[in-house]
Specification:
Elements: E1 8-10, E2 13-15, E3 22-24, H1 33-48, E4 57-59, H2 61-70, H3 74-78, H4 91-99, E5 107-113, E6 129-133, H5 136-149, H6 153-162, E7 169-175, E8 181-186, E9 197-204, H7 208-212, E10 218-223, E11 226-231, H8 239-256, E12 260-267, E13 270-278, E14 303-305, H9 316-337, E15 341-349, E16 352-359, H10 373-379, H11 381-395, H12 398-422, H13 431-474, H14 478-481, H15 490-507, H16 510-517, H17 523-530, H18 532-545, H19 563-576, H20 580-602, H21 607-623, H22 626-655, H23 670-679, H24 684-699, E17 705-706, H25 721-738, H26 740-744, E18 752-754, E19 756-759, E20 762-769, E21 783-787, E22 801-806, H27 814-821, E23 826-828, H28 833-836, E24 842-846, E25 851-855
Parallel strand pairs: 20-21, 21-22, 22-23
Antiparallel strand pairs: 1-2, 3-4, 4-7, 5-6, 5-7, 8-9, 8-12, 9-10, 10-11, 12-13, 14-16, 14-17, 15-16, 18-25, 19-23, 20-24, 24-25
Length: 856
């Protein structure tokens, strides 16, 4: 490249030669985002408005275009990373001379994309930032890294989703602020949409500690001129400084004309503005939910909140097909067993999910006395037939046959079908083909969920039979009998074990190790540069384990969509020294020891009893792993496929200006989303109303139950043996899995919270309240995870935490099983631990006694 004299403009005097390649932030042309990129242009406008923006320069998009158009081979033109750090002469020499005016201070060098920080497409974390840059060589290398980040594959995917092409890039160059404290501020609450408060987060030192998750920030809310501290583990700033940050944020908002997300720092007693961008995912304002109150229509019967799967209100899209699917599947399994109950019904009431055991006939009524049952059975042929069919199901061994079908037919079919549907290139489909594909996915989900419920039913019966056997022959309760199954829930630990294999590669590579220890939003993009082999292995990991939602909801991201989170868990494994082989050996030892004790106790018993125990143990050890395994194949993977298709619809609706944001599609029902794609109609109003309804539901959580609690269920003693066993098994397993009554009670004191002892051992550490996957970044290695409930996918978190406390769930819940597989203490069914405990509190979790105590 032989450029004309590069343009420059210095703060003291302006000299410009076209093309303009280097501009001061004070230069009038620096406010043009096409030349300076959106980030630098925004700061130039704020600096001109008198905001405390550090002085600096912007290397313009003209320099980027000229360098890559004239200085690279064909291969480098498509991959500027190949010329990483290769800023050509004479631009390199000119930069060194021009930047000398900034003195010897270390520099912050940041990418500034032309469509970055815009409404609807923030590009947060998609480009590179390099901090603490010193010396000519480091400056040129940092600029090369910023340029190279414009070609990474993650950015390409992001641009495709947002329907933008923004390849030309500017680079912002500023002196580093020697920060005593730094952080972010939002001029509207990004969760509730409230415009009347400013949220301020702060850490000591550089703000990179907050972005990387290295530190848990102080959290403040400023409303009506009053600063309220929500928690302050860092104790980074004073009340006066919080108010100053909030005032600056409001000034930026007033200047921009919309709610803003700013980055700030305090250095040498002065407050600096480092970045400002519009909040791109803001819910509707807090006043609107009052106009969108959800009518509360209480159906007949007794309804209890279903928190084990639905701790939050559902989005309209998920609700529109999961309710019908679940209710059909429940009715099918109850019919298969011919139970003296019609079904377990799930309903939405006031935006929250409730469930009800429906008796035969559909109405709650006092059951007949035990002495009357034989007469009723003789006089009511339908009842007699149902009981006969129920007993026949047990005699025919149907639950075990379903387990055999799982291994022999259902699981292989689900694997094949998932692979076929996953291979469909959604972006290649026409709108009509995409609509048909969604219908195919809906059919697949309904089929797979029927299998899901049949395997659940089989597990319930067979595991109950095993635990009953241990009770009858050994006098063991379930807490002791579960040791016989220790370490067999292989699917629970498979993602973390595979991640441990990747951690081994990191330990052997100092460059990778340093990269992960300084994890930030740009780390994923740097893996290939640090170690191509590891990057490929990480890609295979995401491919194998990524097709599963993090929570039981279509609107929640899948593992594949959160690679930075996965890398953070990998980093935590390194810090914790997680060793899956050691855990597996310890669990196997527990299992062997329990089996030896059981066999020793049965040695003097009749052969028939010993044979009965061995048969039940053998079957339980084949069934117990299914508790976690089958959910991935018959619910998680089908849900992920439906999510991906919904996002593709959302992308097309955004392109057609029918909705504002891609994720708005989840506020449409499935049929509404398909209709929108077909008719091209505007859906902004409908999405707004649905968002308002969800905000109203979140602000008005429903009670633990509706209706009068029914009398106790009828005694099963009058039923024939097989029918009596089946009913007792189903009711026992439902209670041990969901613990609905225990989970509905409320602890009155935060100093001592009690629940169900779910996994033995004791641990003292800081509590971390996690209400959903959006808060996973708060988790630090060694924390006590306190949450409403966990889903199976959360198992990947467990090597990072040292104890578990949940509001709901029983000893056979996903939460309890996963905790035992990772050998961490767990207390479940506390009812309200997430309300009583606070972030950062030191707590002692006694998983053997079911007690959580706050330590001063």
């Amino acid at each position: 490249m032989k450029p004309s004299e590069p343009a420059t403009s210095e703060p003291g005097g302006e000299k410009q030669v076209e093309p303009a390649w280097l501009l001061s932030l004070r230069h009038p042309a620096a406010v043009d985002s096409r030349l300076a990129g959106s980030k630098a242009a925004s700061l130039a406008r704020l600096l001109a408005a008198g905001m405390p923006v550090p002085e600096g320069y912007v290397l313009t998009t003209g320099a980027y275009v000229a360098c890559f158009a004239n200085n690279q081979s064909d291969s480098e033109a498509t991959d500027p990373a190949a010329a990483h750090g290769a800023v050509p002469e004479p631009l390199a020499s000119f930069l060194a001379a021009a930047l000398a005016s900034l003195g010897e201070k270390p520099l912050a060098i940041r990418s500034s994309g032309v469509a970055e920080d815009l409404a609807g497409a923030s590009f947060a974390g998609q480009y590179d930032t390099v901090l603490d840059v010193r010396g000519r060589a480091a400056i040129l290398e940092a600029i090369g890294r910023c340029w190279a980040s414009s070609f990474n594959c993650h950015l390409a995917s992001y641009m495709e989703a947002k329907h933008v092409d923004v390849r030309p890039m500017a680079v912002l160059i500023q002196p580093m602020v020697e920060a005593e404290a730094a952080g972010v501020a939002f001029t509207a609450n990004p969760v509730t949409g409230s415009r009347s408060e400013v949220l301020v987060s702060a850490v000591k030192g550089l703000g990179e500690k907050l972005v990387s998750g290295e530190a848990i920030p102080d959290e403040w809310t400023v409303r009506d001129g009053e600063a309220i501290c929500r928690h302050a583990p860092e104790d980074a700033i004073s009340v006066q400084e919080v108010l100053a940050v909030a005032k600056l944020a409001r000034q930026v908002e007033e200047h921009a004309g919309s709610p803003q997300d700013i980055e700030w720092a305090i250095g040498g007693g002065k407050l600096y503005l480092l970045q400002a961008r519009p909040i791109t995912t803001l819910p509707d304002a807090e006043t609107s939910p009052a106009r969108a109150a959800i009518p509360i229509d209480i159906p007949p019967g007794f309804w209890e909140r279903e928190t084990s799967h639905f701790p939050q209100p559902l989005t309209p899209m998920f609700r529109s097909f999961i309710l019908e699917t679940e209710n059909l599947a429940f009715r099918h399994i109850f019919d298969q067993f011919s139970l003296l109950l019609e079904t377990l019904e799930v309903r939405e009431i006031g935006g929250w999910m409730y469930q009800r055991l429906v008796p035969l006939g559909g109405k709650d009524r006092r059951p007949p006395p035990r002495w009357l049952w034989p007469l009723l059975i003789r006089l009511a042929p339908p009842l007699r037939k149902r009981i006969r069919d129920c007993a026949g199901t047990v005699r025919a061994g149907m639950p075990w046959k379903w387990v055999e079908l799982w291994y022999g037919e259902w699981k292989p079919w689900l694997i094949r079908r998932t692979a076929q549907l996953r291979a469909v290139e959604l972006t290649d489909l026409t709108d009509e083909e995409l609509i048909r594909h969604v219908d195919v996915l809906g059919d697949f989900f309904r089929q797979s969920f029927k299998i899901h419920m049949m395997i659940n039913g089989a597990q319930n019966v067979l595991l109950a039979k095993f635990f009953f056997t241990c009770r009858d022959l050994l006098g063991w309760d379930e807490a002791r009998a579960v040791d016989l199954l220790s370490g067999l829930s292989d699917a629970s630990s498979a993602p973390a074990r595979a991640l441990a294999g990747l951690a081994g590669q990191v330990r052997d590579n100092p460059r990778l190790h340093e990269l992960l220890l300084n994890l930030n939003d740009r780390t994923v993009n740097r893996l290939d540069r640090a170690d191509p082999g590891f990057a490929a292995a990480f890609g295979r990991y995401i491919r194998e384990f990524g097709c599963r939602p993090i929570r039981y909801e279509l609107s929640g991201p899948t593992v594949a969509e959160t690679p930075r989170w996965v890398l953070r868990l990998l980093r935590d494994q390194l810090r914790q020294g997680y060793d899956p082989a050691r855990d597996a050996a310890a669990l196997a030892a527990t299992r062997s020891r329990a089996a030896a004790e059981a066999r020793a106790a049965l040695a003097v018993r009749p052969d028939a009893e010993r044979m009965r125990f061995e048969k039940m143990l053998s079957r339980a050890r084949q069934v117990y792993p299914l508790r976690e395994e089958h959910g991935f194949y018959d619910s998680s993977a089908p849900m992920a496929l439906m999510r991906y298709a919904a996002l593709e619809i959302g992308s097309r609706l955004v392109a057609g200006k029918q909705i504002s944001r891609q994720e708005d599609v989840f506020f449409l029902e499935v049929d509404e989303a398909k209709d929108s794609l077909a008719d091209g109609g505007d859906r902004h109003g409908l999405v707004k109303r649905r968002r308002d309804e969800r905000a109203w539901a979140l602000a008005h959580p429903g009670p633990a139950s509706y209706g009068d609690e029914p009398p106790p269920p009828p005694s099963f003693a009058a039923l024939p043996g097989e029918a009596r066993f089946l009913h007792e098994a189903i009711m026992w397993t439902i209670d041990r899995t969901f613990a609905i009554q225990a989970s509905s009670r409320r602890n009155a004191r935060s100093e001592k919270v009690t629940g169900i002892a779910a996994s033995g051992g004791a641990y003292t550490g800081p509590a971390r309240i996690i209400m959903g996957e959006s808060e996973f970044d708060k988790i630090q290695a060694g924390d006590v995870l306190v949450c409403p409930i966990t889903s199976p996918v959360w198992s990947i978190l467990f090597p990072s935490v040292s104890a578990l406390v949940t509001d709901s769930g029983g000893i056979l819940s996903h939460s309890a099983i996963i905790a035992r597989e990772y050998r961490i203490p767990a207390v479940v069914a506390t009812g309200n631990a997430t309300e009583l405990l606070r972030d950062g509190q030191m707590v002692r979790v006694d998983g053997g006694k079911g007690i959580v105590e706050v330590r001063s």
